[in-house]
Design a protein that fits this description.
Number of strands: 11
Strand content: 15-25%
CATH topology of the largest domain: Nucleotidyltransferase, domain 5
Shape: elongated
Low-confidence stretches: none
Distance between the termini: 47 Å
Helix content: 40-55%
Structural class: alpha/beta
CATH architecture of the largest domain: 2-Layer Sandwich
CATH superfamily of the largest domain: Ribonuclease H-like superfamily/Ribonuclease H
Length: 433
Amino acid sequence: MHGSQGATALVGMPGFVVGAHELIDGEWWLYVETTADVVGCAECGTRAIGHGRSRTAVRDLAISGRPTVLVWAKRRWRCPDGDCAVTTWSERCEQIAPRAALTERARKRLAERVNVEERSIASAAAEFGVGWHTANAAVAEHTDPVIEDPARFDGVTAIGVDEKRFLNATPTARTKFTTQVVDLDRHRVLDVIEGRSRAVLGDWLAARGKEWCAQIRLATLDPAAGYRAALEEHLPNAVRAVDHFHAIKLANKAIDDARRRVQQATLGHRGHKGDPLYRARRVLLCGDERLTEERFEWMLGLLETGDPDGEVRAAWVAKELLRDVYAATSPDHARRRLIVFFHFAADAEVVEVTRLARTIDRWREEILAYHSTRGASNGRVENVHMLTEKIRRNSHGFTNHTNYRRRILGRLGVSWTTVPTRRIRGRQPRSIA
């Protein structure tokens, strides 16, 4: 142990001084105490007298990369007035809460590790030498007031809605889903709602209030009837739009369904490596403009061999006609191309194409709104799904929706104020990777 002739002030914690320090198993142990010498009784105001000390060890911020423990020689005081109801008490400090394992600044830094640096709670807890529940409590303390602040919803005019798997199915429980609402303009998650239904989304919108709902001008969604009904009911001024990705996904599913049905009908088994339709499964999902002439002829040859009635080819043509709707130059142009798609679907008389046309017809206005909204897309919601899945995997999954919601909103729903690290050198060399 190394002492100093004069106590040294503890940086960032006014009122504390370091009397000695010691290196134990690679960790700094700092022995600290407060500078208060005169303390009055809170009840009667009489000058208190010392009543001994007790040592309290708490984790603090690392020093030069080394874990640090503060050993606080906490004073106990006694009121000398025999008529006073207060007898003894221990001194307190805002930076170290009673029975705490971490200083307040360490709790804040731990929360930043999770919310800003995308660390898991288990990883942050291991870094600070505390248990998972202690670390989770620190994250909750610094995150919950921010994500529950109503001001976080101010200025929102465009939202995207989609479902996201929260908990995979187990032998005793079904797969659980959440509904994620995203601010499309600022690319932030507004909320993560447990469940996926009209009622779930409708209750959330109703809780925001009529004034907030009236300011929403655009709502993007996937073709989910429950979500559409909730948006129709609560967002009177919003244009609802289904983007290119979700519509063409339906068309690709129709191709796969037709291909599998024809495969079973012609060969009596699911696709094998050398089967024509199985070999063409990926190229059928590619856009026509992305195929070279040789690749296109190769695909047609496989269809002529494995699709004698042209049903899979009809599904492929239907997909391309639907893509033409999204490639139109104006809403009126898109309507004309959509009529061409419906005429083809009616003449094709293929089960999967007919089913696709019926679905597109139910979502006709939302699909055409893609053009009136200048290409409104749910892409930012899908991007949030990717980032959400990254957090879920990094944490090895969640079983508690409250913790899951806090982690997602803390990372993707709040713009935290951080000090940027500025470069102090000039240009990067050209050879840098």
